[in-house]
Design goal:
about 280 residues; alpha/beta; seven-stranded mixed sheet; two-stranded antiparallel sheet
Length: about 280
């Protein structure tokens, strides 16, 4: 059953600014998604992801985290609210270069989260939600609803991993986003955000960790495109105008530009491990 990809349906409040969704998804896949690779690696190493793992990725983006788990031998499935990102994930997870046995076990479906399981599908043994809370269109409420729907597909005691930004003072990107989103005021993570989401979903917290995830870009343009691809700046664009947000973002990024033109922002991300009761 490697891989399964389905569209995640989330409710969205308010109107989003007009954007080229295909270009944004491509920027996410080519520029931004790799910034969280240290987080993926740390979680997979801690939970010993391997051939016996059946992983369900919530907010799987364009599939990089799923691909990394599959390279460890895990069977993977993913959902995402963006059909454009999901299309890229399907391309990335094409089994053409895999073994015949892997191709025979490949299944790609489209529809609701319920399509990620059927009578022939064993329970998942790991659920991940690596997309930070601030990246979700409707925040923690939507994530809580998604977790409530997903956990019945997992075995009892299954670890569920949630991730978010670390302490504000240790996330350079937080300062950039706050400056670029005035007056919309992007809110960085609070200390107990992840625990509250887990508890509302009926999960039992069982450990946490912190991982350094520096954001590095080839130049200012790549940094701006990468950050815009997260959707974190959409509220500011809707509240003001794109040109103003672009200007604020460029100014906020300037202190992190190095002598060779690259942009480097140190960040700490936090993850929570909770268990399905």
């Amino acid at each position: 059953m490697t891989p399964t990809l389905v569209r995640q349906h989330l409710s969205h409040v308010g109107s989003a600014p007009r954007v080229n969704l295909c270009a944004r998804a491509r920027d996410w896949s080519e520029i931004q998604e790799r910034m969280l690779v240290p987080l993926y690696e740390a979680v997979y190493e801690r939970l010993e992801v391997g051939p016996g793992t059946r992983l369900l990725g919530l907010g799987c983006g364009s599939g990089l985290a799923l691909l990394m788990a599959a390279s460890r031998g895990a069977a993977v499935a993913g959902v995402d609210s963006s059909p454009e990102r999901l299309a890229l994930a399907r391309q990335r997870l094409q089994p053409d270069g895999w073994t015949t046995r892997a191709r025979a076990r490949t299944r790609t479906v489209a529809g609701s989260l319920r399509d990620a399981a059927d009578a022939d599908t064993p329970a998942y043994t790991l659920v991940t939600a690596f997309d930070p809370l601030g990246s979700l269109a409707a925040g923690s409420e939507d994530l809580g609803e998604l977790l409530t729907e997903a956990t019945p597909l997992a075995a009892r005691g299954t670890p569920v991993v949630l991730a978010d930004w670390g302490p504000q003072e240790r996330c350079a990107t937080s300062a950039v986003l706050r400056a670029a989103t005035r007056p919309a005021q992007w809110r960085s993570a609070l200390r107990d955000d992840l625990e509250e989401v887990a508890q509302r979903a009926g999960l039992k917290p069982d450990g946490s960790g912190r991982v350094a995830c520096p954001f590095g870009y080839a130049d200012l343009d790549s940094a701006a495109r990468g950050l815009m691809s997260t959707g974190l700046l959409d509220t500011a664009v809707a509240a003001t105008e794109r040109e103003r947000v672009d200007k604020e973002l460029a100014e906020a990024l300037h202190p992190y530009r190095r002598g060779d033109g690259t942009v480097w922002m140190p960040n700490i991300f936090r993850y929570l491990i909770a268990r399905v009761p």
